[in-house]
Write a structure and sequence with these properties.
Chain B: This is UPF0237 protein HWN40_10435. The structure holds 2 protein chains of 2 kinds. By secondary structure, chain A is of the alpha/beta class. Chain A contains 15 helices and 14 strands. In chain A, the strands form 2 sheets. In chain A, strands 1, 2, 3, 4, 5, 6, 7, 8, 9, 10, 11 and 14 form a 12-stranded mixed beta sheet that branches. Chain B is of the alpha+beta class. Classes of the chains: A alpha/beta, B alpha+beta. The interface of A and B includes residues 67 and 254 of A.
Chain lengths: ~450, ~90
C-alpha cells in the first residue's frame, strides 16, 4: 500500500480526537461593479451578485467535506469594503446595505458575511464616515454581518481621528446589543495593516487588489499541535519548535487540497490558505494549552510571550513549506472568550490585559474577544486601540482589536456569547484617563523605515 | 472517466463477520478493493482498504451512508475518505 497505515490512523486521530478542522471556506466577491447613486438600486445589485456567485457555496463545501472526510465548520462570504461600494450614494446612512448583506447571507446559507468595512488609515472620505456612523445600527439590526475598519498601516501611520471615533462606535454598538451581552462588538474589528484576503471573521473583507471571486481557506488545529507537543518526552524548546513545524505542515497540506478542490468546483480563483491556530471553547482545542504544554504553569506568566513567539514562528515555517499560497495571518490567534485555557488563565489571575497586549507583538492578530467593564470610557477604549495599532504599525504586522465593553457588567462578571464565541470574564482596564490624548486627534506619523534598530 | 480512489478504514472491537459485512456493501456499490490490510492495534480491530471506483455516476454520499450504517450494525466505525486526504497530508 502506498500510504502507510500509521499515517492513515494519524490523520483519523487528528480529526476524531484532536479537533482538526477546516475552520472556514470564505468566498470573496467583488462588489465594485454594483455601485449606483440610488441606494435601493445598489442594494438590489449587491443582493443579486452575492446570491448568484455564492449560490452553490454551501452545497459544494459540504460535498468536498464528504469526499475528504474532514469537517468544514464555517462557510462565509467576504465582499469589497462597503464604504468603497456605497461611496457614490447620497444617503447619509448605509445600514440598509448591511441588511441586504444579511439577507443575501441568509438566503445562500452562509454563517457570516464580512465587508461592512472601510480603510481609513490616512484619512476618511465622506463615504467612510457615513459607513462608520452606520456601524451600531448595522450590527444591532443584523445577525450575520461583520464589520472591520483599518485605521493604521506601517506606511500611513495611525489615523487618530478614526481611532477616537471608533471608541464611541464600539461603546454604542455594545449598548445597542446590551440584551445579548454586547455581542455586536464581537462582529467589529479595528485593524492595523489589515490583509486583503483574510478568511477569518470578523475581519474578513475582499480587498481592492483581489480578483472577481476567490476562495480563501482558514485551517485550524490547536488541538493537534497541543497533542503533538504533549506527546514529546522531555523535549528542548528546539525539539518543540521542530514538532510544531512538522505538525503545521501536515495541517496546511490538508487545507490546501480542500481549498483547491472547492475553488475548482466553483470555478473561482484559489486565493490563500491561512493556517492559524484559532482556538475553540472545546476542551484541548486551546492555544493557551499549547503554551502551558511548553512548561508554563499558567498562560500569562513570565515566559508566555517567548513561548508564543516560538509557537507563531514554527507554525509559519511549517505552513510556508507546505503551500505556496499561505495567507498573511498564519500563526496563533489568542482570543480570550473562545479559548478555554485563556479563560481559565484570566480567572485565576495569571493573564492580564497588559500581558495580552505584549503577547500581541508576536502573535497573529491582537487583542481579541476581550470583555472589559461596560462603564469603560470611550476614550479608554480608543487608547487601547491606539496602543495596539502602534504595535502593528511599528512592527510591520497585522494587529487588531475586538473589545467588548459588556453593558452593565464589571470585573468579576462573565459574559456568555454561546457557540464558537464562547464566554468572557470581564477584565480590568487601567483606571487613569487617556481622554486628553485621544481628543487631540490628527495622525500619528508613519515610523521611519530605514533605521530599523 | 478517471477512477477515484478512496481509503476505507474500519476500527472497532473485533468480532466475526466484519470483513464480510463491509465488503458486501462495497460489492453492492461496485467498489473494487485495490489493497487491504488488517491488524489488531491496541486491542482494536483495524482494517484499512484502498478502494477504487470506476463508475461515472458513483453516489459517494449514499455509499458513505451505507458503509456507516453497516458499521453501526457491526459495532465498528467505518470511514470513507478520498485518498488525497492522506496523500497530500503526509507526502510532498
Amino acid at each position: 500500500m502506498l500510504i502507510h497505515p500509521e499515517e492513515i490512523l494519524e490523520t483519523i486521530q487528528m480529526v476524531s480526537n484532536e479537533n482538526l478542522d477546516i475552520r472556514t471556506v470564505t468566498m470573496g466577491i467583488s462588489l465594485r461593479d454594483c455601485g449606483n447613486p440610488d441606494i435601493d438600486v445598489l442594494n438590489e445589485n449587491i443582493y443579486r451578485k452575492i446570491t448568484t456567485y455564492a449560490r452553490d457555496l454551501v452545497k459544494t463545501t459540504d460535498a468536498v467535506q464528504n469526499l475528504y472526510g474532514i469537517p468544514i465548520i464555517n462557510k462565509r462570504i467576504s465582499v469589497t469594503p462597503i464604504a468603497v461600494v456605497a461611496e457614490g450614494c447620497d444617503t447619509p446612512d448605509f445600514s440598509s446595505v448591511a441588511k441586504t448583506l444579511d439577507r443575501a447571507a441568509e438566503d445562500v446559507g452562509v454563517d457570516f458575511i464580512g465587508g461592512f468595512s472601510a480603510l481609513v488609515q490616512k484619512g476618511m472620505t465622506a463615504g467612510d464616515l457615513k459607513l462608520i456612523k452606520s456601524i451600531p445600527e448595522a450590527l444591532s439590526s443584523t445577525k450575520k454581518v461583520c464589520s472591520s475598519i483599518n485605521v493604521a498601516t506601517t506606511k500611513a501611520g495611525i489615523n487618530m481621528d478614526a481611532v477616537s471615533l471608533m471608541g464611541d462606535i464600539v461603546k454604542e454598538t455594545a449598548q445597542r446589543t446590551a440584551d445579548q451581552g454586547g455581542i455586536g462588538c464581537a462582529k467589529l474589528v479595528i485593524f492595523a495593516n489589515a490583509p486583503d484576503d483574510n478568511p477569518f471573521m470578523a475581519g474578513a473583507f475582499h480587498g481592492i487588489g483581489e480578483p472577481e471571486c476567490t476562495i480563501n481557506v482558514g485551517v485550524s488545529g490547536p488541538g493537534v499541535v497541543n497533542s503533538a507537543v504533549r506527546s514529546l518526552e522531555d523535549p528542548t524548546l528546539g525539539d518543540i519548535s521542530e514538532c510544531i513545524k512538522k505538525t503545521s505542515f501536515k495541517i496546511t497540506r490538508m487545507g490546501e487540497v480542500i481549498g483547491r478542490e472547492v475553488a475548482k468546483r466553483l470555478d473561482a480563483n484559489f486565493g490563500v490558505l491561512d493556517l492559524s491556530l484559532a482556538p475553540t471553547p472545546a476542551i484541548g482545542d486551546s492555544v493557551a494549552a499549547i503554551l502551558e504544554a511548553m512548561g508554563l504553569e499558567s498562560c500569562g506568566t513570565h515566559g508566555t510571550t517567548a513561548a508564543l513567539a516560538l509557537l507563531n514562528d514554527a507554525v509559519k515555517k511549517g505552513g510556508a513549506m507546505a503551500s505556496s499560497s499561505v495567507g498573511g495571518l498564519s500563526g496563533a490567534f489568542i482570543p480570550v472568550s473562545e479559548d478555554a485555557g485563556m479563560i481559565r488563565a484570566v480567572q485565576r489571575g495569571s493573564l492580564s490585559l497588559d500581558k495580552l497586549e505584549a503577547m500581541t507583538s508576536v502573535c497573529s492578530v491582537g487583542l481579541d474577544m476581550i470583555a472589559v467593564p461596560g462603564k469603560t470610557p470611550a476614550s479608554t477604549i480608543s487608547a487601547i486601540i491606539a496602543d495596539e495599532m502602534a504595535i502593528g504599525m511599528v512592527n510591520k504586522k497585522t494587529t487588531a482589536v475586538r473589545l467588548i465593553p459588556a453593558p452593565g457588567k464589571d470585573v468579576g462578571d462573565t459574559v456568555e456569547f454561546g457557540g464558537l464565541l464562547g464566554m468572557a470574564p470581564v477584565m480590568p482596564v487601567n483606571e487613569y484617563s487617556s481622554e486628553k490624548f485621544i481628543a487631540r486627534g490628527g495622525r500619528i506619523p508613519a515610523p521611519i523605515q530605514a533605521l530599523t534598530n | 472517466m478517471v477512477p477515484s480512489r478512496f481509503i476505507i478504514t474500519v476500527i472497532g472491537i473485533d468480532k466475526v463477520g466484519i470483513v464480510a459485512g463491509v465488503t458486501k456493501v462495497m460489492a453492492d456499490f461496485h467498489v473494487n478493493i485495490v489493497d487491504i490490510s488488517q491488524t489488531i492495534m491496541e486491542d482494536l480491530f483495524t482494517m484499512i482498504m484502498l478502494a477504487e471506483v470506476k463508475k461515472g455516476n458513483f453516489d459517494l454520499v449514499a455509499f458513505q451512508k451505507a458503509m456507516s450504517d453497516e458499521g453501526s450494525e457491526l459495532g465498528v466505525e467505518v470511514k470513507v475518505q478520498h485518498e488525497d486526504t492522506f496523500r497530500f497530508m503526509h507526502r510532498i
